[in-house]
Design goal:
single chain, 368 residues, alpha/beta, Enolase-like, domain 1, TIM Barrel, 2 domains, 10-stranded mixed sheet, 3-stranded antiparallel sheet, 21% strand, globular, Enolase_C-like, RHMD-like
C-alpha cells in the first residue's frame, strides 16, 4: 500500500466566549485535518493541533517538504516514514516545533490508514491493554463572572456527566486564592472525584510549594506543570521530594528525550506528552515505553480522538482528557460518533484505525 498524496485542511472555530488559563487567553479552537491517500483506495485521516499560531507554516511544511518525501513510500512502514520526515526539524533558522507538529499531523493520519487497511482499531494493532479508559474533563477556566460557587457547580455537573475527574485551571491568582478555588471544586464534586490542578507553568518553586501545602488535604490526583519552564526539571524534582502529591508534566516537551530527562531527574509521576505537539503517535509511544521502565504513568495532552487509543494501548495508561464544548466546540461538532462517558470511563470505538466518523458538512463549514 503506497502513499499517493497527502492533504492538509485548516479548521477554525471561535469559542462562544474567551476562556482564561493561568498564562493564556483562548478565543478559538483550531486544528489541521490531515488525509493520507493510498494507491489501494484506503484514506487515513485524523485531526490534531490546538491553536492557530504557526498553522500556515505547518500547512506549508506538509505540502512542500513532507508530502514529497513520503510520496510512493510503503504506508505500512510508519516508523520509516516518521524517520524520513525528521530532517525537517533540523533547520536551526526556523521554529522546529512547527515541523514537529507537521510531522505529527501526517503520522496520525498514516496510522489511521494502516488500521483501516487491516480493519483493526489502533489500540489493538499496537498490542492492546484495555477497551476503555478513565475519562477526565478539562475545566475550571477563569471567567469574568468567576466565583467559588460557579467552580463548585461546574465540578458537580462534570461528576454527574460521568467523568472520573477534572483537570482545572489555577496559576493566574495567588496560591492562596487558587487553593480556595480547588477547595470549592472539592466541595462541589464530593469525595472520589479526581482533581488535577494545572497552573500551566505559572509559578515559582516557592509559590508551587505553598499551593501544594494548601491543597494537600483535598485528595489531589496530580499537580500538573506547577513551576516555571526555565528550571522545571530541578524544581519539579524538588517539589516531588517535598510533597506527597503526584507531579505531572510533559506536555511542553517536544521530544521523547525531553520526557526521558524529566523521568531521569525524578521530576514526575505522570507524563502527559502531547502527540499533536510532539511528533505524533509514533513519538508518544516511544515516550510511553520509556515511562513504563521508570514506573511513570502516561496520558495524552488533549485530543481525545487520539489520546483514548494511545492510553488504552499501554499498561501504564492513566486516562484521556476530554474538553467541554465551551473549550473545544470543534471536536464536539466535527466528530459524529463521539463516545459516551459513563461511570468515569470512555469506551473505545470498534471501527478500524482511529474509528472516527467525521461530519463532512461541519468540515466544509469550518474550513479556515
Amino acid at each position: 500500500m503506497r502513499i499517493e498524496r497527502i492533504e492538509a485542511i485548516p479548521l477554525r472555530m471561535p469559542l462562544a466566549r474567551p476562556l482564561k488559563a493561568a498564562t493564556a487567553l483562548i478565543t478559538h479552537r483550531c486544528t489541521v485535518l490531515t488525509r493520507v491517500y493510498t494507491d489501494q483506495g484506503v484514506v487515513g485521516e485524523c485531526f490534531g493541533n490546538n491553536e492557530d499560531t504557526g498553522q500556515a507554516e505547518i500547512l506549508r511544511l506538509i505540502r512542500d517538504e513532507l508530502a514529497p518525501v513520503l510520496a510512493g513510500r510503503d504506508a505500512f512502514l510508519v516508523e520509516s516514514c516518521w524517520q524520513a520526515m525528521q530532517p525537517a526539524t533540523r533547520d536551526i533558522l526556523r521554529d522546529r516545533r512547527l515541523a514537529i507538529r507537521a510531522i505529527a499531523c501526517i503520522d496520525a493520519a498514516l496510522w489511521d490508514a494502516v488500521g483501516k487497511a487491516l480493519n483493526v482499531p489502533l489500540h489493538k494493532l499496537w498490542g492492546g491493554y484495555s477497551d476503555d479508559v478513565a475519562a477526565y474533563a478539562m475545566g475550571g477556566y477563569y471567567r469574568a463572572e468567576d466565583d467559588l460557587g460557579a467552580v463548585a457547580r461546574e465540578m458537580a455537573a462534570l461528576r454527574d456527566q460521568g467523568f472520573a475527574g477534572c483537570k482545572l485551571k489555577v496559576g493566574a491568582l495567588s496560591p492562596q486564592a487558587d487553593a480556595e478555588r480547588v477547595r470549592a471544586a472539592r466541595d462541589g464534586a464530593g469525595p472520589g472525584f479526581k482533581l488535577m490542578p494545572d497552573p500551566n507553568q505559572g509559578w515559582s518553586y516557592e509559590q508551587a510549594l505553598a499551593f501544594a501545602r494548601l491543597v494537600e488535604p483535598l485528595d489531589i490526583f496530580w499537580l500538573e506543570e506547577p513551576c516555571y519552564w526555565s528550571n522545571d526539571r530541578q524544581d519539579l524534582a524538588r517539589l516531588r521530594r517535598t510533597v506527597p502529591i503526584p507531579i505531572c508534566a510533559g506536555q511542553s516537551e517536544i521530544s521523547a528525550a525531553g520526557c526521558r530527562e524529566l523521568m531521569a531527574a525524578g521530576a514526575i509521576d505522570i507524563c502527559n506528552y502531547d502527540p499533536s505537539w510532539g511528533g505524533g503517535p509514533t513519538a508518544w509511544r516511544k515516550v510511553a515505553a520509556v515511562a513504563h521502565t521508570y514506573g511513570v504513568g502516561v496520558l495524552s495532552h488533549l485530543e481525545p480522538q487520539v489520546g483514548a487509543m494511545l492510553a488504552a494501548s499501554v499498561p501504564n495508561g492513566v486516562g484521556v482528557e476530554v474538553m467541554q464544548p465551551d473549550r473545544d466546540p470543534l471536536y464536539h461538532a466535527l466528530v459524529a460518533n463521539r463516545l459516551a462517558i459513563a461511570n468515569g470511563r470512555l469506551k473505545l470505538p470498534d471501527g478500524p484505525g482511529w474509528g472516527l466518523e467525521l461530519d463532512r458538512a461541519v468540515e466544509k463549514r469550518l474550513t479556515a
